[in-house]
Amino acid sequence: MQTTYIETQQISFQDFKNQILEDYKLGRISREMSYLGRREVLTGKAKFGIFGDGKELPQLAMAKVFKDGDFRSGYYRDQTFALAVDALTVESFFAQLYADTSVEREPASAGRQMNGHFATRSLNEDGSWKDLTAQKNISSDISPTAGQMPRLLGLAQASKIYKSVKFEGSEKFSKDGNEIAFGTIGDASTAEGHFWETLNAACALQVPMIVSIWDDGYGISVPTMKQRAKADIAEMLSGFQRKEGEFQGCEIIQVKAWDYPSLLDAYARAEQFARMESIPVVVHVVEVTQPQGHSTSGSHERYKNEDRLAWESQFDGLVKFKEWILDYSIEIDGKEEVLAPAEELESIDEEAKKTVKAGQKAAWENYQKTITDLIHSVLPFVENLKGQNSEIENYINQFNKLVSKAKKDVFHLVRKSLLATRGINSAERNQLMQKYNEIFEVEKDNYSSHLYSQSQWKAENIKEIKPVYSESSEDVDGRVVVRNNFDKIFEKYPETLVFGEDAGNIGDVNQGLEGMQEKYGEVRVADTGIREATILGQGIGMAMRGLRPIAEIQYLDYILYCLQGMSDDLATVQYRTKGGQKAPVIIRTRGHRLEGVWHSGSPMAGILNLSKGILVLVPRNLTKAAGFYNTMLQSDDPAVIVECLNGYRLKEKQPDNLGEFTVPVGKIEVTKEGNDVTLVTYGSTWRIVMEAADELEKLGISAEVIDVQSLIPFDLTHEIAESVKKTNRLVVIDEDVEGGTSAFILQQILEKQKAFRFLDSDPLTISANDHRPAYASDGDYFSKPSADDMVEKIYAMFNETNPQKYPAIF
């Protein structure tokens, strides 16, 4: 059992004094970083700055109870905390401000995130997990206010799960579930729904979570009284306060941001509740100041009156901390002991300025050296071209006149020079071209790598294992195939768990998890409240801590509730950390054709466009869906798997190798061969396309039907182009709106696969109407493509080229 801060505070006065002065020093360093960071932005050396000044003391107090194995999920104000837990240095702070692309110098994001977005590296270079219990962990920050909250729930719940779930390697992620997840949020952001949904779920689940609310009285320029029903969030949350003997609710602690000893006591109590009793805690830190305003985009003098500004100056946390240190005295063995005289604190102040200036100088020099090294490696090759085009010298002179040079200026020079010398085949130009390709590959890695996994476990590397059938293979409902496959999954992978609305007790609304909770328990097969955003958040947080969660969103239409988290958080985890973190969540949902506006929508285009970074898998039946689950549980990519809602009662032959067979991602399947036209589709629409293809056959049109199976990645081996090369005609059939998924598929086939070269007719898309589907079978027929629609529109292609053989229908 881990000890807590309260249990380790029997120390000597000298140790106590050293701790206080170390805190003061760290607070001063953080403040000077904020001051100098703002100046660096305003002098043009950085693009934007947002800093944590004013929040130094509560973050120092929070850091004292933050132990190895703990996790933080926060936002862009926590630089003092990051310094205190050794997740940030002065140099790495400024490296991020300058957008240095070196992982070594800027390990949080390698220059991909604006300053103040912190992260520790959970992964080794090969994408394997580090021992997360041996380090203090920060899950990568995101800017959308309150967007960090749903993930916080999953990080905290993982500790509770690890109290009963063990598997090979689980010791890297938890020590008997004794870890706390810490969240931080600005007071104005508590107006967001994600805050309330997360806190509600945490109070219901009773997870070890501490949420710190930094209350500085404003949301940018809008005062708190206009943000919430009550200005005091602690008062507003009073109904969440737990009652004695009940296993619901949370503890609420309010403390002033400038009161150092009270802050230590507040966080010590919060840790005791969370670590020892698994009770969520809200620490409402009030009277927080913001000495430089919200960001470098503006001045807080524009919206704060003189009285407020004067108060903030007087109650600045570091000012009050200094006063407290100077006033502190205690008698020990008849002798008065003090913490430090004013001269010593002033010396610390001066030393902090020097430390920060030295760190900033080193970070700037390292950043500039990257650019100067690039210039020195490229410029000679450009100069060698001066004799081949008179404009080259002008380009070089313009480049040399630039006061400040960035990588983009170097690339602009090279590309302009190559453009000017197009058509010239010379050794000098070829050398420049070779150098350009070399530096382009480096910057491509710096700015565009790790959108998807680049490890040996990436989904594309998982080998296909076909389903095995025998004479004894039964014809069963599709739901039975996926249910029995889940049974094998839970048996094979003890780190796997599933949760969602109705997923547990009744085995999901379509019985795909029937009997699983009874067999594997409520921890691994769990019901949740109706709260899609935090169902996703549970998945992200758990996956970041080594579990393999399957987060169930009951219907595809309702995935819109968690699309923000999918887009801003999950889809960008690997990218925004340049491979430093991962969250291989599987989002299980069901959709496509059924009945009604809210149960048969197809927001696939939105998912495709907003969630690049997540695999999008669209199996046509439940056997294919089962195969995708088997594939993804061997991968470290996140994925959404959309089961066919109208397929659960359709008969399928159950494979003999449940839990073993896999469906490869990015691989299409030709389900009917043909010679005259290629029909491309996916999901539930496939069955209707097959029906239409049979009708077309009777009309003398031989259609080849292709099920794409996965939209992201899409047809990695370009087999669809080969089909079009054979048939010379292409039709994309989709139940999404016009210009939705069909437009994406068309772009992939025509542009990326260059299948336009083989077309004898205009490509055709057959999609749904732009409105949501109307109710019942008639609504489906008139709202989405029917077999009649498909037959008539495809037949018209042939009527246009050969009206005698294919006379007009209408």
TrEMBL record:
Q: Does the keyword Oxidoreductase apply?
A: yes
| Keywords assigned by UniProt, alphabetized | Oxidoreductase, Pyruvate, Thiamine pyrophosphate
InterPro entries hit by this protein? DH_E1, THDP-binding, Transketo_C/PFOR_II, Transketolase-like_Pyr-bd, Transketolase_C
Instruction: Give the Pfam families listed for this entry.
Output: E1_dh (PF00676), Transket_pyr (PF02779), Transketolase_C (PF02780)
Q: Which residues form the Transketolase-like pyrimidine-binding domain?
A: 476-650
List the transmembrane segments. Answer: none
Cofactor annotation: thiamine diphosphate
Keyword DNA repair annotated: no
What is the purpose of this protein? E1 component of the 2-oxoglutarate dehydrogenase (OGDH) complex which catalyzes the decarboxylation of 2-oxoglutarate, the first step in the conversion of 2-oxoglutarate to succinyl-CoA and CO(2).
Report what the protein is called.
Answer: Pyruvate/2-oxoglutarate/acetoin dehydrogenase complex, dehydrogenase (E1) component
Give the organism the record lists: Chryseobacterium profundimaris
The taxonomy runs: Bacteria, Pseudomonadati, Bacteroidota, Flavobacteriia, Flavobacteriales
